[in-house]
Amino acid sequence: MTIVLSLFTGLSLGLTAQKTVLKTNAPYWLTATPNLGAEFAVADKVSVELSVGFNPFKFGDNKQLKHWVVWPEARYWLDETSNGHFFGVHGVGGQFNMGGLDIPIWKLENLKDRRYDGSAIGIGVSYGYHWILNDRWGVEATLGLGYARFDYDVYSLGENASKTGGNRKNYFGPTKGAVSVIYVIN
C-alpha cells in the first residue's frame, strides 16, 4: 500500500493536465455509498487514479453498512490513456462498521447476526477496459485481484451490544471491481 501511495503521490506531482477524468462506480451506489474518482494522465500510456467511497448511513434496527474506502492505482494503457485496455497496480484501504444485514452471499452471510468493526489494507493488480462514448463521456469496467489484511472486532446486535471476539484475517481474491461512468474534464 505504501508503495502504491508513494507512486501515486510522485506521479501526481508531475502532472501535465494532458487528460483528467472524473468517475463514479455505478454499482457501488446500490449499497447507498456515494463515491468519486479522479484520474490523471501522467505520460502517453500511464495514468494515476484515486477513487474514494463513503457510507455513513444506518438503515434501521441495527442495520448498517458504514464504511469508507480509498483505492489509489497506477495504470499502464496498451493504446493511449483513457482508451481501451489497461493494466494496473492498486492499493485499497479503509474502515468498516457493518452488521444486521441479511446478505446471503459468501462471507457476508454472518452480517445478519452480528456487527463487525475494523479496518482493511491491501494491494493488488487489475485489468480493465475504457469505452469512449463521445468527447466527454465514457464507460469503464475494471476487476482487481490481490491481498488484503482485515483486523476487526465482532459485536452482538442490539442496544446493549457487547464484544464477542475479534480477528485478523489474510484475504486473497477480488480487491477491486467497478463499472464506472466517466466524464472527461480536459
Strand content: over 45%
Q: Please state how the strands of the largest beta sheet are arranged side by side.
A: 1-2-3-5-6-7-8-9
- The count of strands amounts to 9
Radius of gyration: 18 Å
Mean pLDDT: 89
Helix-strand sequence: HEEEEEEEEE
Sum up the overall morphology in one term.
elongated
Helix content: under 10%
Distance between the termini: 29 Å
Which spans of ≥5 residues are poorly predicted at pLDDT below 50?
1-17
Q: Please, how many helices?
A: 1
Structural class: mainly beta
Largest sheet, strands/sense/barrel: 8 strands, antiparallel, barrel
Describe this structure as you would to a colleague.
This protein is mainly β. It contains one helix and nine strands, in the order αβββββββββ. An eight-stranded antiparallel β-barrel has the order 1-2-3-5-6-7-8-9.
What are the defining features of this structure?
1 helix, 8-stranded antiparallel barrel, 186 residues, 9 strands, mainly beta, elongated, disordered N terminus
What is the element layout, followed by pairings?
Elements lengths: L1 H12 L6 E6 L9 E9 L2 E10 L2 E3 L2 E15 L6 E16 L15 E18 L4 E19 L7 E22 L2
